[in-house]
Amino acid sequence: MKVLSPILACLALAVVASHAALSPEQYWSYKLPNTPMPKAVKEILHPELMEEKSTSVNVGGGGVNVNTGKGKPAGGTHVNVGRKGVGVNTGKPGGGTHVNVGGKGVGVNTGKPGGGTHVNVGGKGGGVSVHTGHKGKPVNVNVSPFLYQYAASETQIHDDPNVALFFLEKDLHPGATMSLHFTENTEKSAFLPYQTAQKIPFSSNELPEIFNKFSVKPGSVKAEMMKNTIKECEQPAIEGEEKYCATSLESMIDYSISKLGKVDQAVSTEVEKQTPTHKYTITAGVQKMTNDKAVVCHKQNYAYAVFYCHKSETTRAYMVPLEGADGTKAKAVAVCHTDTSAWNPKHLAFQVLKVEPGTIPVCHFLPRDHIVWVPK
Question: Where are the strands (E) in 251-358, listed by range?
């Protein structure tokens, strides 16, 4: 057994003590004293401050209970895949499950005995299949377009509002216009404290224990969503990137610092108000924040806040001021990937932009609850 030197042992104890003694906000201030906290982080720390109904996580001796917000007992749970994703409303007992895809909607009734619902992410097409236990073809819905190993489904290409977020770097200049929809994630899962998150398993091998802690029925839509988030986190990184799934704010801070050294900025997209898709114009003041290295963290669908973070040495990040046709103003974070050679050739970006992997930088704006960490 390897024994730590007295100095290293003291440092290790200090790290444990700092996580235990400090709140997430205090830990941010301690580790990032000169870095303002982005709005996205504040909202996930305090989801009760957001306009939509929040998901609160209560930790007690009997395990972890997830409360999906205020309202009537028949209110139900909303679960997203990717950005817009799948809305799952578990209405009155026996009423079945309604799966809403994008804005058009697909109704799936699982109220009949033996019906069941199964959600599968992956496969050759790279999409998500929802199997309802009844005869007929599965319903294909969207996966996050920010997971670069997956191909896009036909449904995603036509219906996913994130399609509009992809563009070419040559179009990133004042005066350029784009039709955009900065959606707000209706899945309001909050951060768990570091010490709590560390005690909860996060592994495909421990799914029964995870489901038990969160009172999630195995085989349910929610169980499959959680299962697939863990699966994505366990997938190997694509060539040229390093990845990590942060299960607390503290672990996301630690990962970003470990990969970047000193962090200069942590930023997220901010929009004055929620609007439907309409034309935005890039205004003066585009700021390049980094020319090569960054850590980008994408919020995932889970019972509590989990971020899929990846570090790349071939990333340019920009802060882009936008003004909508109705006067709505936004400060959008744009990320441009200068090497896409390892991406799935059928990824959403290539199908939308009509370019080939590895030929030209591919850019995308980030949704409002994703975070870019920029080095000094």
Answer: 263-267, 270-271, 278-282, 287-290, 294-299, 307-312, 315-324, 329-337
Cβ-based neighbours of 152, under 8 Å, separated by 6 or more: 126, 127, 145, 160, 346, 347, 348, 351
Which domain range does residue 225 map to? Answer: 28-39+158-373
Residue 177 lies in a domain: yes
**Helices and strands in the chain, H and E counts:** 9, 20
Whether residue 22 contacts residue 32, with contact meaning beta carbons closer than 8 Å, is answered with no
State the pTM of this model: 0.70
Tens-place pLDDT, residues 102-145: 333 333 333 444 444 333 333 333 333 333 333 343 333 345 66
pLDDT for 346 equals 85
Instruction: Tell me whether residue 193 is in a domain.
Output: yes
Which carries the bigger pLDDT value, residue 262 or residue 116?
A: 262
Query: For 10, how many CA atoms within 13 A lie in the half-sphere containing its CB?
Result: 3
Is residue 322, in this structure, part of any structural domain at all? yes
User: Which secondary structure element, helix H or strand E, spans residue 5, and what is its range?
Assistant: none
- DSSP letter at 191? P
| Structural domain contains residue 108 | no
Cα–Cα distance for residue pair 35/373, rounded to 1 Å:
10
Q: How confident is the model at residue 277 (pLDDT cuts 50, 70, 90)?
A: confident
Q: How many CB atoms lie within 10 A of CB 96?
A: 19
What is the Cα–Cα distance from 191 to 90, expressed in whole angstroms? 24
Q: Does 187 have pLDDT greater than 60?
A: yes
Place 194 in a pLDDT band, splitting at 50, 70 and 90: very high
Number of domains the chain is built from? 1
- How far apart CA 251 and CA 28 sit, in angstroms, is 11
